[in-house]
Design goal:
Length: 391
């Protein structure tokens, strides 16, 4: 049998048929592989397993019954999945059917973000294909669960109904009938940019007033703590700066309102005149300032760097108009001084995420990253004592 030890997981690949003629040798070899690899997470990849008899099932259970770690049996054919379920394997171990494989060749790209690319498969479905190693299958399945929980709770979002293989990557298929991203419609209808920006502002207000039961989703403020901790570990914050930023995060009130955390025009779809969210797997609960800061990061800071032009087809000047309209709609004000103050406060929180993003750019020389981070730090600490959560 082929196997590989990742350090955190032992993956074994049984092949062919396991029956009365080879069940004893199968059991012996399986025990030997497990005993030689001291790993507490075992995955049996059954993609190459054609059949397993009652004797083979008994041999498998004999080994697994003495294994103290977690066990996952995946890539099971429908027949093998049924056989294991009939024997009660699903009550003791996690068993998974073989995933459907799809091709995205020739498919239209309708969105792109930090975790993957969204393609249109056909008029009724889209698929988000996740980037490589930072998105393992377990994480993607958890993302699918979050998407389902968000939909059930009344947030206007797509329905995630299938996890699939796309080449050497994984994807999640969503139901999406006759919809286009806000980025797309804004590009095609530049005279209506403010109209769609107002819709974004109104939707943000609706989301930020939607209450969830405590613990339903992750705490959004934890991501801010992670950013601050990472900057300290990378040497971009001294102890005093670290303490001040941690206190800034500590002072954000706890709330159980919905936070999207990546709320930009590429992740909002227009379906029959109504906005529908995609890419909600990172959604959490918390104070609206956390979402507003994430929005500002894209609409203002990333836009100024050219990111939005490359990934969303809208440049900094266009996003300046979008953001201004969103803020006026969200806070229901045309008071220029008030808008200036709102942007100053949001900028302070957003720059923490911004400098974390810059710190991750390994391809950029460290002295350049340090200069950009130093400039943003000055802006944060110049006003940090005047920052406070809004609204």
């Amino acid at each position: 049998m082929k196997y590989r030890n990742t350090g955190k997981k032992l993956i074994i690949e049984p092949e062919g048929e396991i029956n009365s003629s080879n069940s004893e040798s199968f059991e012996k070899e399986l025990r030997s592989i497990i005993s030689e690899n001291d790993v507490r997470n075992l995955t049996l990849d059954a993609g190459g397993l054609k059949d397993i008899s009652d004797e083979g099932l008994k041999a498998l259970e004999n080994v697994l019954a003495n294994y103290s770690g977690s066990v996952t049996i995946e890539e099971l054919s429908p027949q093998l999945y049924k056989a294991l379920k009939n024997e009660g394997f699903n009550k003791k171990y996690e068993i998974r059917k073989k995933m459907r494989e799809i091709s995205i060749e020739g498919c239209e790209i309708i969105g792109e973000g930090g975790n993957g690319i969204v393609y249109r498969l056909d008029p009724e479905t889209i698929v988000k294909v996740y980037f490589g190693k930072k998105n393992p299958l377990d994480k993607i399945k958890q993302n699918q669960k979050v998407t389902r929980d968000v939909f059930v709770s009344g947030i206007p979002t797509t329905i995630a109904f299938d996890v699939v293989r796309v080449g050497d990557k994984y994807g999640v298929v969503y139901e999406m009938i006759d919809a286009r991203s806000f980025a797309e419609v804004m590009r095609e209808e530049p005279d209506k940019v403010e109209y769609y920006a107002e819709m974004i502002g109104e939707l943000a207000k609706k989301l930020h007033s939607t209450e969830f039961k405590e613990g339903t989703l992750q705490r959004s403020v934890d991501k801010l703590y992670d950013d601050i901790d990472a900057l300290k570990e990378c040497g971009y914050l001294n102890q005093n700066e670290y303490a001040r930023l941690r206190k800034l995060a500590d002072d954000i009130p706890d709330r159980n309102t919905f936070i999207h955390q990546d709320f930009h025009p590429g992740n909002i779809m227009l379906q029959k005149g109504e906005p529908i969210l995609i890419d909600v797997e990172d959604a959490g609960l918390g104070h609206p300032i956390l979402d507003l800061a994430s929005m500002y990061l894209v609409y203002v800071l990333a836009a100024s760097s050219g990111w939005t032009k490359k990934h969303l087809g809208l440049d900094a000047k266009e996003f300046e108009k979008i953001w201004d309209t969103v803020i006026r709609t969200y806070f229901d004000t045309d008071d220029e001084k008030k808008i200036e103050e709102i942007n100053r406060i949001i900028d302070g929180y957003a720059r923490i995420k911004y400098i974390r993003g810059v710190a991750r750019q390994d391809k950029v020389p460290r002295f350049i990253r340090s200069a950009i981070i130093s400039s943003s730090k000055k802006k944060i600490f110049k006003s940090i004592d005047k920052l406070h959560p809004i609204p």
